[in-house]
Write a structure and sequence with these properties.
heterodimer, A: alpha/beta, three-stranded parallel β-sheet, three-stranded antiparallel β-sheet, 36% helix, B: alpha/beta, five-stranded parallel β-sheet
């Protein structure tokens, strides 16, 4: 796999060539249905994380993207209501572990589909490699 | 509410009594398989993890199949560290050239996977193992490394689709034709992320060889897994092979399915998937006469002993057409040896076919029969996407071993009946 940092400048360019000009590290991506469809590579979520995106909220995720995002430690939340309501530029607060999304601009609050505890632990650890290290007692 | 066989196996391995489709679980793995390529990939992640020992060397199978015999210098250098790692980990179920085969053939054949198991493999065709009544699916190298260390995998419980087959297949109609007809009907995304459960009266008469072929191609409909509930045929096959105790599961009559499909296979013709997709399926009669540069008999789909017997039956005493090349690759060393003893390899060699030791090479355009620009091949394999077996302009037709043998003799796609009775 190529270094995700090298891929970060190209993140989302297939959909929005200007993406990296408008987006900033610490931003969220809010997306529609089947986000991440078409890529079976870990480089897709790895590039998003390397760019500094904190979380992706979508109506739904493509299955391989979901697996890869969880495994490389990119926080994701499935929340159709939030994905439809949040507007570009809104200030949004996300508690990934609790699955809570607050749109501070509009004041709206959303509950995402809850992941079971082990999935939250896996994402909080930063992905499958650090999670496995933790489980083996190496950290 | 009842559960499917898939849900029952997953629940048992997650320490639960019930699981629902769509929920995430952590499941204990009974056997994990890595091939040469995927184990090499996993070892890079293994180093990042800093793991020292595999969770249980008895439950790990490492099968060299893609690049053996060492394809080139790059492959040789890729595999050397894997060979060292396997010895360092004291993994006994290690299959290297001269004693190997295609992983999905080796695992059931050597009794390393059994009914009720949860099997995970570093290869997309790991779903083949579902033919013994196990849950079996493929994963990538990051997952593979973590599973090797922990003996656990996280999964989203797939919803099942049930495929019910009625009728007795005619001469030269095989498991390959049932699964091609199925994929032709539902499409390459017809079972995305779902479990395909094959059942019905036809299945009760179907050999393990045909069942392995059907589960092998579940991934070609996008499925996570394919499965057939164990019956007498399964248990006859498993007894004397299984290295561990097994458990038989069956779907409840009131289990829930995303869809139910019925097939009458009584008048099904041998099927052919035309370029460039496994769902581009027609009866062989529609493409008969298509000139062929190469015929390939082999792979985890159709390189089993029964497949070789059927093809040899049609090739006995005949010659491969002068304008066509034929390659035969038995799917395991055991099959190779049996085929040798039965005189099958002699039939192929005397017919003018190239016979190789087991490897995946030809199927994925790696080595041992790569297609050139514009060439046309009829192959008993599972994929015919652009560039799958070589040059992107080469065309691959997928078919059963009987169609392959008859077509090799005539040099064009041929209905098997033209070359003799079944």
């Amino acid at each position: 796999m190529r270094d995700p940092a090298q891929l970060a400048p190209h993140v989302m360019e297939g959909i929005d060539p200007e993406f990296t000009k408008h987006a900033r590290p610490g931003d969220l991506i809010v997306a529609g249905k089947n986000f991440g469809c078409g890529s079976s590579r870990e480089t897709a979520p790895a590039a998003i994380r390397a760019f500094g995106i904190d979380c992706v909220i979508a109506v739904s995720f493509a299955r391989i993207f979901l697996r890869n995002a969880v495994n490389i430690g990119l926080p994701i939340l499935e929340c159709p209501a939030a994905a439809r309501a949040i507007r570009n530029g809104d200030e949004v607060e996300v508690d990934v572990a609790a699955g809570r999304i607050v749109d501070r601009t509009t004041g709206a609050t959303f509950e995402a589909t809850a992941f079971p505890p082990f999935m939250r632990e896996l994402m909080a650890a930063g992905g499958l490699v650090p999670y496995t290290r933790r489980r083996l007692g190496l950290v | 509410m009842g559960m499917t066989i898939t849900e029952k196996i997953l629940a048992a391995h997650a320490g639960r009594t019930v699981v629902e489709p769509g929920e995430f679980i952590v499941a204990k793995v009974d056997v994990v398989m890595g091939n040469d390529g995927s184990t090499a990939g996993a070892l890079a992640v293994w180093k990042q993890i800093g793991a020292e020992r595999v969770f249980d060397p008895e439950r790990v199978a490492i099968v060299f199949d893609h690049f053996v015999p060492n394809k080139d210098i790059q492959a040789a250098n890729l595999l050397t560290p894997v060979r060292h790692w396997v010895r360092q980990q004291a993994i006994r179920h290690f299959f290297d050239e001269g004693r190997t085969g295609i992983a999905h053939t080796i695992l059931p054949e050597q009794g390393l996977v059994g009914p009720g198991d949860l099997m995970v493999g570093g290869d997309s065709h790991s779903c083949t193992n579902g033919a013994v009544g196990a849950f079996a699916t493929g994963v990538g190298s990051t997952d593979l490394a973590s599973i090797l260390a922990l003996g656990e995998v996280w999964l989203k419980v797939p919803v099942s689709q049930r495929f019910v087959y009625h009728g007795t297949p005619g001469p030269f109609v095989m498991g390959k034709d049932l699964i091609l007809a199925t994929i032709g009907r539902i499409g390459i995304d017809g079972a995305l992320y779902q479990a395909m459960e094959f059942a019905g009266p036809t299945m009760s008469g179907l050999s393990m060889s045909d069942r392995l072929t059907m589960c092998n191609m579940a991934i070609e409909a996008g499925a996570k897994s394919g499965i057939i509930a164990p019956d007498g045929i399964t248990l006859d096959y498993v007894r004397g092979r299984a290295k561990r105790p097994w458990r038989v599961y069956a779907s409840d009559p009131d289990a829930r399915y995303a869809a139910l499909h019925e097939f009458d296979v009584g008048d099904l013709r041998p099927q052919v998937a035309k370029p460039f997709s496994p769902d581009n399926v027609v009866p062989v009669d529609e493409v008969a006469g298509t000139p062929l540069d190469q015929v390939f008999l082999g792979s985890c789909t159709n390189g089993k002993l029964e497949d070789l017997r059927i093809a040899a039956g049609l090739l006995r005493g005949k010659k491969v057409h002068p304008d066509t090349r034929m390659i035969v690759i038995p799917a395991s060393q055991w099959i190779y040896t049996q085929a040798l003893k039965e005189g099958l390899l002699e039939i192929f060699a005397e017919a003018g076919a190239a016979v190789s030791t087991p490897t995946c090479g030809a199927c994925f355009g790696g080595h041992m029969g790569v297609l050139g620009a514009g060439e046309v091949c009829l192959s008993t394999t599972n994929r015919n996407f652009v560039g799958r077996m070589g040059d992107p302009t080469a065309k691959v037709y997928l078919a059963n071993p009987a169609v392959a043998a008859a077509s090799a003799v005539r040099g064009v796609i041929t209905v098997p009946e033209a070359e003799g009775p079944a």
